[in-house]
Each structure stands twice: as structure tokens, then as C-alpha cells.
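Quick note —
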Amino acid sequence: MGWQVLLFISVLSLSAVCGQVSYSIPEEMLKGALVGNIAQDLGLGVERLKSGKARIYTGSSEEYIELKRERGVLLIKEKIDRESLCGQTMPCALHFQMILENPMEFYTVTVEITDINDNPPTFERGEMKYEISESALTGARFVLEKAIDDDVGVNGLSSYALKPSDNFALKTIIRGDGTKHVEMVLQKPLDREKYEHISLVLTAVDGGEPQLSGTMQILITVLDVNDNPPVCSKAEYKVSVTENAPIGTVITTVMATDVDKGNNGKVTYTISKSGAASLFKIGPDSGVLTLDGNVDYEKKRRYELDVQVSDQGGLSDACKVIVDVTDTNDNPPSINIMSKSNTVSENMKPGTVVTMLNIQDPDANENGKVMCVLNENIPFAIKSTTNNFFTVVTDSELDRERSSEHNITVTCSDEGVPSLSSSVTLTLQISDVNDNAPVFERSSYEAYIVENNTPGLSVFTVKARDADWNQNARVSYILEDSSVNGVPVSSYVSVSADSGVIHAVRSFDYEQIKDFHFRVKAQDGGSPPLSSNVTVKILIQDQNDNPPQVLYPVQTGGSLVAELVPRSADVGYLVTKVVAVDVDSGQNAWLSYKLQKATDRALFEVGSQNGEIRTIRQVTDKDAVKQRLTVIVEDNGQPSRSATVVVNVAVADSFPEVLSEFTDFTHDKEYNDNLTFYLVLALVVVSFLFITCVVVIISVKIYRWRQSRVLYHSNLPVIPYYPPRYSDTLGTGTLQHVYNYEVCRTTDSRKSDCKFGGAGSQNVLIMDPSSTGTMQRIQSEKSILDEPDSPLEVRLL
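Predicted structure written out below.
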């Protein structure tokens, strides 16, 4: 296989290189054949093709050539047919571009497709017919059809030849456009008595290598005069007709010839009277023998007919037509059921006979041979035992769960063309055996239950299905024995034997157990019973049932803890950080911090998310040294729970200053350690003093009454007597005056239990339940005031 390369390269501006390369290849090259090494022909390296992502661009036309960048060659992508691509156009070429990038370059590639001699000359018609009288003159011309060759050049049409050439010669005429036309010229008179029909072959040859040719047949009928009696072409005709052929079917044509012309040469055909004459008729002028009745191979297989031919002059001849009736496949097989079973067990072994059949087909030979098959995808097969006898047997294991009933369609077909068939459907019931264990709908189960649930609550339902039937498919659910943290699982959950509903036996606590596993067994009612089990996982969901717990600052009862803030602290100074936790989970454990109370709210703030206490303004000399902050910690549950913590802050630059200011805090802490005891003691003392006061007041009243009675009866002047420090504030009687008691303390009496105020004051016990305990401690919040007339204040946190 030769190829040519023509290379033209030109350099354009803007660093875009344009070149041209041309190849010449023959058509019909195989796919993958080499066109040319374009990398070598363009002086490009293979690496340049790879780095430039070389590709072929053909526009919208079909790609016949492909580029292999790894080798730098052009290959045939699709087989090229020059005639389909260009027709008679010369030259025939493919034009496309090869494009590269970095820098951008393109090359024009032209691939010329050369013609090979792959198309022979052809005629539009396979034959031409002429009727020529035997009296035609020598030199008569008859125009013939020209041949067409799709190839071009030397591979195109070259010449014509006519054989045999006894009576006719061939003449080729070249027109002005270069096309070749051919004529047939009579060069010898025709003789009908010798050659009534002449058959010639016109051959067109091209100039390619190898040389190809095409032929057309020329049929010539020679017309003659009538000077001879009719003569049958055959003394005996043997023909055949298929049974059940429709009336009017042409069987054969009886041919008789008469060399005469006119009425003397006109031939008439008749059938002699016979028993078969009613089934056939013949055309009186044409001699065409047709069917005029129904023939049946099974009744009669051969008919003999006598045909007489005569012309108008009374001359005649006779011939015999033998008609053989051929069998057609007009009888389908007949299926007879000899014995069958209506029900079989699904554990029946393969090869068990379920039905016996007898098949009959009255046709002959291949038309009477019968083959039987079953419908697809059923576990049965059909076997031939003896001639025309068949049995249907089990072919594989039966499975009632896949199909409880089988419709077995037996189709029997003969070997005729076209084949005829008959079918019968057998219905077979499959009885069940317990061969399937219950199957759970899931391989494992997972359910959620909220803690603090009510015992007996329905958690969820496990469901198992048994593919068997009736009692074999009845499923019961059993809780398998196991333990959870050493406790039997039956004390946690129970399973309904009939429905598979799982109930919670106890109330769950998320903080104690977050999840647990157990297994449930599903057992059917077969004999023996089959079972399967599944793992169930119960996950306890958290509720907001635990308040936050403060870890820092730690609230101690024996000592005072205070955070020191220098007076030079700037805005945003970190004082301390409240650290709290919540044993709940999820959003129930998301904590937020708020400043509930403060000595100076304008000085401190609490980070809502991190609990950091920072200054929100510059600390000044006017700010009190002792700062008391109450921070409330809330979780994000619904409803939310909270805890409070008291943070003592000292605003000072030196420790002695802090120590002097917070001495009272230390006493308060020591006092609060025994707050409960002192509170009870205070209540007892107050109650005792109240009763004592009531008794004294009543005693004084009785005493005064008796004195007034004595003075009244003694006629002595009444001189009112008032005890020391007794004042008549209202002037309406002694009972309206308030008698004051005072308990005096030592200089270290801050540790004492209670204090009664001075004149006009009442004993007050103040309880503040607004705060809750933190870290299971009862902490004091406020010390006893220093002023002698201040009331007693006790606050319980």
C-alpha cells in the first residue's frame, strides 16, 4: 500500500504557525490503518503533540481520520468509500485541521482518496426482451441499455461484448460527453423453425485490475407464419399441487405450438371428460390448467388428465397431465390427557410423574412429527416415552412459597412449514410443608424511648413473616433470656407473643442506662417448629430532669472566697469564670448564664455562653470594695432548670484592704455553717419570748385591774404607775402600749444566734426562697447587719 506526502509550511504572525500537509491513500483501507506520520512530516516531536493537546478539527463533517498523539501518526477511524464520499467527482479529498495549544498552532491536512476497482459495471435491468419477425431485414438496429460503473478513470467502464454473435453484431457509439452507448445490429436473417427464441448475453467490462464485469440477458422471440399443425411441447406433464390450495390456483400450462399464422395457427385446449374433470379446468386459449375444486392429500394423492389441443384447421394433438397432490401441514396435533395429578407436595422428588399425555397428528412425514414443550420458568419437564406418548415430570425442587399453584401449559408443535401447534393448560396445586423459618422484616431493630416513661408503655413492634401456609405460618414471639447490667432483661421489657409488641416493664432513667440490647425469637407453629431471632436495641432519650451543677466557684461554708479586681482594671477585665455542668444530654445540657443580682449591675456582666464575669466599665475609687454577684445558670430544656451561685468580688489594690473589708464575711460564713440549728433556736426563742410577753401583759393587766378595784373601794386617789421606759403613746390605755425587750451582745456577738431591736422595733425573720441550692449545699447569702436596731435576716439558699 503506497502513500504520498506533500508538505507545505508557512509561518504567520502572532506566533501562530500554520502549515499544510497532504497525503494520498486508497479507499476502503481497514480501520486503524496508517495514513502517515504527521509529527515527522511536520517536523514536530511527539512530546509537542502531547503538551499542545493536539487534536483534529473537521467542522461538522464526519471524522474518517483520527490522531494518535502518543505515536504522532494519523490512522483510519472509519472505512472510507470514495464513491459514497465524492461520487464521480475527481479528485476526492478530505480536508481537516490539526490544532495545538501553548503556543496555539494549526496545520491544514489534506488526504486524497484514490479510487480502487471495487465496483463492477451494472445494468439497471437484468434482462431485455424483443419480439422480432423472422422476416426482419439485415442491418436492422436495436438500442440496448448502457451499463453504469461507479468507479472513475481507468477503473470505469471500458467496453461491451455480445455472445453468441451468430445473428447479431454489437456497435458502440461514443457521445460528445464521453459516454458510451451500444446498439445491436441484425447481420443474418432469422429462422423461427430453427430458433424461435434467442437468448443473448451483453457483457460490460471495466479497465481496472483485476478487471470487473456486469451482464444483462437479451431475450429475442422470433415471429413466424402458420404452416404447420399444433404440436404439444410434451407428451406428458408431471406437476404437483398442494392440498387445500384455493380454487383458481394455477397448476401448470400445457404448451402446444403451431408454426402457422392467423387462424390456422390458433390453438384450442380442452380436457377429456373423466371423474377428475370436475376438479380442474384449462383455459381454452391459454392452456393454463387451474384448480376448480378442493383436493385433499388424505383422500387422494394423484390425478391423471388428458388434454387435447387443436387449431382452426381441424388439426389436433393430445398430451397427458399427471397431478400429484402434496401434503400440507393443515392438521394441528391433538393432545389427549391420559392421567394427571391435581395436587403434589412441595417436597416431591425431581422426576416424579404428574401427567401422562397421548399426542396424535394425521399429517404425513415431517408434518406429522410432533415435539412437545412446556412454558418457561416452571420446575417441570416433558419427556417422550414411546411414539406419541409423553409424560410431564418434576424437573427440580418445588417451593410452595414461591408458587402455590402452577399452570403448566403443554404446547405440541409439528415440524411442518409453517408449524402448527396445540396446547393444553394443566393446573397443579402445591401442598405446604414447614420448610421456612420466620423472617424478620429487618436484620436488626432500633427504637427510642423517652426516660421517665410509664411502665407498660408500648415501645414498638417487631414483625416476622413466615412464607409457609396456615399453621406452618403462624408466628409467636418469645423474649430470649439475657441480662442487662446483671439484671434479667425481662425486668426491662416484655414481648407480646401474638403481636410482637414490645412493652417497657419499668421506668427508665437516661442517667443510669442509655441503651441496652436483647434478642427476640420468632417461632412458627409447624412440626417441628422453625425459628429465627433478631437483635433489638433500645435507646433511652434524655429528658430535662436534672438542674445544672456549679463546679466553680465552690461554695464553702467555712471560709470566704472572693475574686480580687484591681481598681486599675480596664473595660472587659476577666474577673472569674463560672463553670457549671448538666448531667443531661443534648440541648438539655446546653447552659446559659445570666446575672440575677449584683451590688452594682453597671460594673459587671456575665457571658451568656461561657459564664465569664467581666467588667463593663472602668473601675473607679467610688466603687465599693465588697461586690456580691448572684449568677443564675439555666439549661436549654423544656421546661428549663436552673441553679444559682454567689460570687464575692473584692475591688481593691492591696490585700490588707480586702482583709479589713471582708472580715465580716468570714464571720458570716462561720455563722452559716450552723444556719439550720440557729434558725430553729431562733424560732424557739422568739416563740418563748412571745408567750412570755403575753403572760406578762395579761399579768400586768390583772394586777392593774385589781389595784384599780382596791383604790376604787378604798376611796383613795388613783396615781398611775408606769414601769421604767413605759410610754403612753396613744393615751387610750395600757394595753395599747408596746413593751420593748432588748438583748445585749458582746463585741464579738456576731456569732450569736439572734438579736432583738430597740424601741419601737419588731422581731423579724426573713426567709428568701428565691435561690436554690448548688452542689447539694445550703449556703448563706447575707450577714447580720452591724447596726444595733437592724432586724435579724436569715436567707436560705
